[in-house]
Amino acid sequence: MIEAMKYTKWITVLFCLLGLAACRQDAPRFRIGVAQCSDDSWRHKMNDEILREAMFYDGVSVEIRSAADDNRKQAEDVHYFIDKGVDLLIISANEAAPMTPIVEEAYQKGIPVILVDRKILSDKYTAYIGADNYEIGRAVGNYIASSLKGKGNVVELTGLGGSTPAMERHQGFMAAISNYPDIKLIDKADAAWEREPAEVEMDSMLRRNPKIDAVYAHNDRIAPGAYQAAKKVGREKEMVFVGIDALPGKGNGLEMVLDSVLDATFIYPTNGDKVMQLAMNILEKNYADPQFGVKDLTERLNISYTVIYKKFVSLTGLPPVRFIQLYRLQIAKKILESSTNNIIVSEIAYRVGFNDPKYFTRCFVKQYTQTPSSFFK
Ligand code: FRU
Fold first, then answer.
1. What pLDDT digit, counting tens, does each position of 15-53 carry?
2. I need a surface site. Which of 85, 98, 146, 257 has the fewest CB within 10 A?
3. Pocket of ligand 1 (CB under 6 A)
4. CB atoms within 10 A of CB 358
5. Radius of gyration of the chain measured on its C-alpha atoms
6. 166-223, pLDDT tens digit by residue?
7. CA gap 336, 352 in Å, rounded
8. 262-284 in b/e burial notation, b at 16+ Cβ within 10 A?
9. How far apart are CA 376 and CA 25, in angstroms?
């Protein structure tokens, strides 16, 4: 999938030149758009991690938009990022089916797309990063089966039915309890990842089911909603409550376990720092392809070599090959300036698309009359 995105960065650079768009020195090197599906403490933690990690990279701007669990709003957010011309899109798809065509559209326009935690129903994206929801569901199933000693009635309150973690957490759970013939899933309802619908749904489940031994809640906002409903009718001590997320901090999962509201919660990592690192790897790889040449640009853009050549010379005073080399050297200089000497120069040479570190150093010295290592901060 990365293949299709290979030259995106160069094409952006070229458009920048041809259209004389803002290519000033202080303009960000990379603009990243983050389309979050929801606005809650789990998302806030991930967003904070993304923003903090972004500070370790030079010239990166990150804009985060939240759809507040609304597919239509998320589609608008993605279109906003497409129109803005972001260099990379990070998205957690609120629901898989409705978001699939919109994510495909961004991808097909040449924007690298990272799916985070919630997937779409297509392989038109660049990378996925997230924990294994099927495995978490299985772990919860085994845990509940063992705490009920292999016998009992379970009800399940799921996340939003059209979101992939809800589907996978259910499938993993079913696979685990299929090994315990006396563990029965007697009821199931969609609680849309939130506390209020969980309380309403649990209230009806309690009316329908005189004997409930365990509640499997797909996250730690659903779990206290279910607990509250059971408490209202004085039945909370009859059953165990299990959630997912295990966030630290006031009112979150870990505290609820310590307060004996939940029996257990399972870790679902936010990993915003890893998301950002992946984004930067993809963006920097776009530049780094040593195979890249002007021929690729002419093919991708369907513009003749002569036209490209003339445009480059008239706008930059340089032939395209020389311009590409200069651009790579500039990126290398920026990386050097923002790094301490714990990375080696040859690694930077490869990162910006030089095959031969010695040749890189020669070109660098010629351009800046100083060695690359003298630019380390
Ligand atoms: C946060 C959240 C988490 C849940 C995850 C699933 O928005 O609802 O509580 O684990 O999304 O995608």
1. 555 544 444 445 677 999 999 999 999 999 999 999 999
2. 146
3. 38, 40, 42-43, 117-118, 159, 163, 165, 193, 219, 244-245, 268
4. 10
5. 26
6. 999 999 999 999 999 999 999 999 999 999 999 999 999 999 999 999 999 999 999 9
7. 11
8. bbbbbebebbbbbbbebbbebbb
9. 19
